[in-house]
């Protein structure tokens, strides 16, 4: 992306590249989240304010990282408003070294011949996985 001031307006292509979603997803989010209102100029070109970009980043995190549904994010926006949503800290899930190390590869003929040895996983990681599981179960129950 070009070197622009932090206060500069961004085009839809710049925002899509920054956030990591296609442009059509941003257009779709405009229809689902009334708080996302880019400035439109001649030819219906969209220009996003810095606040719009931050809100879109928050929506992206909630949908793709935190596992919220569109209805869930709509409810959060309705309850907290855009500024309240942006004020929430981004959760950080620690990853232990035991999780990032892979077991040694077995020769193809022995792939299923030897039992899998359990690896040590720290309690914080297990807790975060259980929280994700519970959040997914709740989302499936709502669907």
Summarize the model shown.
The chain is mainly alpha-helical. The chain has helices at residues 12-19, 23-32, 50-65, 70-87, 97-100, 123-142, and strands spanning 10-11, 39-40, 46-48.
Structure overview:
By secondary structure, the chain is mostly helical. 53% of the residues lie in helices and 5% in strands. The protein has six helices and three strands; from the N terminus they run E-H-H-E-E-H-H-H-H. The chain has helices at residues 12-19, 23-32, 50-65, 70-87, 97-100, 123-142, and strands at residues 10-11, 39-40, 46-48. It has a three-stranded antiparallel sheet with strand order 1-3-2. Helix 3 (50-65) crosses helix 4. The longest helix is centred in the C-terminal third of the chain and has 20 residues, at 123-142. It is globular, with a radius of gyration of 21 Å. The two termini are 38 Å apart.
Total count of helical runs of at least 4 residues: 6
Give helix and strand order, one letter per element, not per position: EHHEEHHHH
- Uncertain stretches of 5 or more adjacent residues: none
Taking the alpha carbons of the first and last residues, their distance comes to 38 Å
Keywords: DNA-binding
Protein name: MerR family transcriptional regulator
Domain HTH merR-type: 11-79
Pfam families: MerR_1
């Amino acid at each position: 992306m070009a070197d622009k001031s932090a206060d500069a307006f961004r085009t839809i292509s710049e925002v899509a590249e920054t956030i990591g979603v296609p442009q059509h997803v941003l257009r779709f989010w405009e229809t689902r989240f009334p708080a996302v209102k880019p400035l439109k100029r001649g030819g219906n070109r969209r220009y996003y304010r810095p606040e719009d970009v931050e809100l879109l980043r928050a929506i992206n995190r909630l949908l793709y990282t935190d596992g919220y549904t569109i209805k869930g994010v709509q409810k959060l926006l309705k309850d907290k408003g855009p500024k309240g949503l942006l004020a929430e800290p981004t959760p950080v899930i620690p990853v232990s070294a035991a999780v990032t190390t892979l077991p040694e590869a077995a020769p193809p003929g022995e792939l299923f011949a030897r039992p899998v040895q359990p690896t040590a996983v720290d309690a914080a990681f297990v807790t975060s996985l259980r929280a994700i599981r519970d959040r997914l179960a709740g989302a499936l129950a709502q669907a």
